[in-house]
Amino acid sequence: MARPKWPMARPKRPMARPNTNTNSGWAARARPVLLACMIVATLGAQDRAPNRRDVTVVARDHQFIPDRIDVRQDDLVRVTFISEGRPASFAVDAYRILKRAGAGQTIVFEFRADQAGTFTFYCSLTSDPQCLDMKGTLVVAPK
Ligand SMILES: [Cu+2]
Fold it and tell me: Does pLDDT of 30 surpass 70?
């Protein structure tokens, strides 16, 4: 009766010990399952995974080609902006985008189209008055 309990409990310890190893413990085995659940939950919260869009815009003779860009809201848009002949910029005020490409230069930038609506993209350079007429339209369709 006076016998302490610990000598009986002791044999359990070597069996319990491997479970404290993070590489073989339940937590490590459960991690991929938890990750999968989080991904499924994230995808379920949105209508779909973010769409990636690639758009190429050429600035030529004070024109944007094309002068209209159509994307869907929340698209991740990658713009390849090519400036032929003379420097040009690509600006969208609502998106705080202002990218400049020197003569003959190609630049690449990304933005998330998180605001639905119709926006003007334009050349913001002031060195050439014809830049004032250099405009295009960005249409972001609501999701
Ligand atoms: Cu310009």
Answer: no
**Which residues, chain by chain, have CB under 5 Å from ion ligand 1?**
88, 123, 125, 131, 134
> Is the whole model's pTM more than 0.70, yes or no?
no
Q: What domains appear along the chain, each with residue ranges and CATH number?
A: 6-45 (no CATH), 52-141 (2.60.40.420)
Strand order in the sheet with 63-65: 63-65, 52-60, 76-83, 106-112
State the distance from the centre of ligand 1 to the C-alpha of 122, rounded, in angstroms. 8
pLDDT digits (tens, 9 = 90+) for 37-73: 454 454 444 556 789 999 999 999 999 999 999 999 9
Q: Ligand 1 centre and the CA of 20: distance in Å? A: 64
Cα-to-centroid distance, 21 and ligand 1 (Å): 62
